[in-house]
Write the structure tokens for this entry.
Amino acid sequence: MSENPLKVIMDKDPELFSLLENTQKLSFTEGGIPLKYKSLIAMVLDAANGAVDGVKFFAIQAMEEGATKEEIMQAIRIAQYICGAGSVYTAASALNDVL
């Protein structure tokens, strides 16, 4: 994921991109829930929604914030319990290169 996946939005609708960027900054600020856990939450939401690139991105981000491989797998277990086996298949595709 070298290029921003939202580049077309950035180029064609900068106002929409700015809204997305501001929401991201608001969601991932320090305080309340530690950033590691925010990234794990985002990772499993992407797994539940079939977003392979998102799972990969957030898994890497979570590890950069101090999450262990075991914590990532525990989060995937919760996604499977709540959202089903599809989330595990999505996570497996994403995490192949990461773990």
User: Anything to note?
Assistant: The chain is about 75% helix and 0% strand. The first helix runs from residue 7 to 12.
